[in-house]
Amino acid sequence: MKVLRLELYRAFHSRTFLISLLIGLSICILDLVTFCIRFGGSGSKVLLQAWIGTDYQFAYNEMFYVLLPVLACLPYGGSLYTDMKSGYDRNICIKTSRIKYAFAKSAAVFISAFASVSLPLGLNMFIASGLFPANTPERLEFMSIRVLDRNLFAVTNSEHPVLYCLIFIIIDGLFAGVIALTSLSISKAVRSHFTAVVTPMVFVVILSMILLGDEFGNWSVMDMLNPRQYVTTIWYQMLTVFLVILGINALVIWITSRKRAVI
Amino acid sequence: MKKVIPVAIICLLIFWISRIFSINQYPPACTVYNIGDTVDCGDLELHFAGSDLDDPDVFKERFGIEYDNDFGEYKVIWICIDVTSRSDADIEWDDVFSFLECGFESQVWGSVMSPEIDMQINRLNSESLAPGATQSIWFAAPVNKVCFKDSSWEKIDAYQYYYVLSLSPVKTEVRLEA
User: Is the peptide bond before B6 cis (omega within 30 degrees of 0)?
Assistant: First the structure.
């Protein structure tokens, strides 16, 4: 589809995608550098302690996961707003249907958000893998995250730490994609590009303050995406939240795409 | 110049991937003993006499103690180690306990021994461990249901548990029978 190719090209060649990637990479590299300076010479540290997703010792993990909605929405989330403001969408919709344009835009937003979150996490893991072995951290040292049976992927964390990291990189990327779709669905209601990009983060932060988790589960997006798993998340909660966010955004995007007249 | 950068990136990738392989070549060593084994540790000889994963009532009856857990449903895992002194001088109990105590773990759970339980279940025969003397020492820890999924808790006895004696320089642990 031509319009999909065009939207993907615009998404991955935009300045905002580069800025988002640089912010994410900076946080990840700073965490790794800080970890190496603090513990690098000890020889007893492992990948699961050094990777930003499971490194609880510095603030960079929290910083990354609080900023995750912004990192997701910044690359291309506000593009629908700018297209509507400039009239670009009307030009496109002369040559293609509005639904196809909305689909292409949504796909580009999703994929660029996935990339802007997963690439820094993946690169951080790749670099850390060359510095620290991928052994299972000793539980009784209490110097690593404690993933118990109640948490997600507990056996994978114990037996295949690299796979555990990869699973959460993919999960974080997928959630980044659906969170970025929120920017699209509110584009008609906001008055600035900045608002379109930042509003999903506000939703995530407020909901995380309301939906505090306990040992029986957790419905907060911010907490369930963090591989540290300091609150218990049950698998169906993660799946439900993902499908709800995706469903609501898809519905709103579809309705607003149908209703707006081209001429 | 256009060809140099991609080639340099590829070389760097190859170097880094080979580095990843090389640092993961030697997994950490671990010495595992079984219940019934006897280990010579220089001044101390350890015999791993027994272990079990008890229901709370069974545990309280076995040791004649009162213990309640604040975290809901639980079981108690314990190990008994017979310690014999091979030294010519008395060994202080602090030294003996610091040599032995670490914790329990399984694939998806871990806990240090419970000082509260250990204080109640251990009866020391003397002020210190005299040369040639033997003392049975028990270590125990609660296994709380909140750490496990409901489906896992139903087959909690099927997990393999270990008592970890030391983490460095080489990890040493005892495979428990529960």
Answer: no
Residue B84, classed as helix, strand or coil, is strand
Q: How far is A71 from chain B (nearest CA, A)?
A: 26
The count of residues in chain B is: 178
Count structural domains, chain A.
1
Q: Which two three-digit tokens encode residue B1?
A: 């110049």
Question: CA A39 to CA A33: how far, in whole Å?
Answer: 10
Residue B145 structure tokens: 């249901």
What is the distance, to the nearest Å, from the Cα of residue B100 to the centroid of all Cα atoms in its chain? 9
Nearest residue on chain A to B24, judged by CA atoms?
Answer: A133
Instruction: Please give chain A's pLDDT, 263 residues, in tens.
Output: 788 999 999 999 999 999 999 999 999 999 999 999 998 766 788 999 999 999 999 999 999 999 999 999 999 999 999 988 888 888 887 778 888 899 999 999 999 999 999 999 999 999 999 999 999 888 888 778 888 899 999 999 999 999 999 999 999 999 999 999 999 999 989 999 999 999 999 999 999 888 877 767 889 999 899 999 988 899 999 999 999 999 999 999 988 887 555 55
Q: Please answer yes or no on whether A140 and B105 come within 8 Å at the CB atom.
A: yes
Give the closest-approach CA distance of B22 to chain A in angstroms. 9
ipTM of the complex: 0.87
pTM, two decimal places? 0.91
CA dist., res. A61 & res. A34, Å (int): 12
Domains and CATH numbers, chain B: 28-175 (2.60.40.1240)
B149:A155 CB<8 A? no
Paired tokens of B5: 């950068």
Picking from B23, B148, B171, the nearest residue to A149 by CB comes out as B148
- φ, ψ (nearest 5 deg) of residue B166: -155, 155
Residue B140: name the closest of B103, B85, B90, B97 by CA: B103
Quick one: A66 exposed, middle or buried, by C-beta within 10 A (0-12, 13-18, 19+)?
A: middle
CA distance A73 to A23: 13
Q: What is the Cα–Cα distance from B141 to A27, expressed in whole angstroms?
A: 40
State the residue range of the domain holding A10.
Answer: 2-259
Lookup: tokens for A18? 């580069």
Residues 40-99 of B with CB under 8 A from A: none
